[in-house]
Specification:
Blueprint: H1 2-8, H2 11-25, H3 31-54, H4 57-63, H5 67-96, H6 98-108, H7 115-123, H8 128-153, H9 165-185, H10 187-196, H11 198-222, H12 225-228, H13 231-258, H14 263-273, H15 278-288, H16 294-320, H17 326-329
Transmembrane segments: 12-29, 35-55, 67-88, 100-121, 128-153, 165-186, 207-227, 233-256, 284-304
Protein name: Solute carrier family 10 (Sodium/bile acid cotransporter), member 7
Pfam family, one: SBF_like
Amino acid sequence: MWQVFRRFFDNYTLLLLGMVLLATFVPAVGQAELVMTWLTRFAIGLLFFLHGARLSRQAILAGIMHWRLHGLVFSFTFIAFPLLGWLMLPLLRPLLGNELAMGMLYLTALPGTVQSAIAFTALARGNLAAAVCSASASSLIGILVTPLLVLILLDLEASGASFSFLDTLISISLQLLVPFVTGHLLRPFIGEWIAGQRSWLSKVDQTSILLVVYTAFSASVVAGLWKDVPLNKLLWLTLACSVLLALVLFLTAWLARRLGFNKADEITIVFCASKKSMATGVPMAQVLFSGALLGPMLLPLMIFHQIQLMACAQLAAHYAKRPEVAEEKA
């Protein structure tokens, strides 16, 4: 039983769940809340600084010429995904309530993942160069596109939040884009050192997200999150995330075949276009939303993140079992 459990829940997932439990029973209030807020902002800036320093221009250029593949990935990430979320909204609101339904829409507006999309593509023997390019570009484009999609998709005033696209763009630029660009400009000086510290620096990514999750859920718990999210809503939310992922996995694979992509390209499209990034989504929610609204906005992302990892791990293993053909080696 324990081996089956550990197959689907890795150490980091358990830590994320631990942060939610810690915030539930020991939320940060008063002076502790202020300290955690500033510590979280510093961690987010450091996170994006390191992402900028790690991003290789050569990796982007290696796959950038495969424009049909990238166009399909970006169309799913920033058009089809939000459209599916919007179409599901009439069903989601009565089942989940307005705030969790808005959290589902926020989820659909996010860019794709980088590490897991590339890792699953490699495991499944897909087009790795194109995956590196698409995943990296999606993460970078999302810093600017996601706030615009949020403005279009979410009626934030009805959700109890105020929203100005210009103010948000400035906040995004100062907290995320400026550290990212600074890190990338310093890459010639620190890139080699960072590459040698990969195992240690990966902890910065994880720690930053853990801090944001704890701080966000602390504010939401104090405001009565779990009184507003009973067990039946959590079950409906899990089902909604599963249905959304299943739809995207089916549509990406079907469309890739209809458009004549080979199997390696199909794999890259499926894994790059079906993911939503917690590494970008969590800190961006910290900028876009405030107070008690953060928890409901992040809860769908956390559930979807775990489901996508479990489903795509099984799918990658299935793809990896296929025999190699000359077309894929080319």
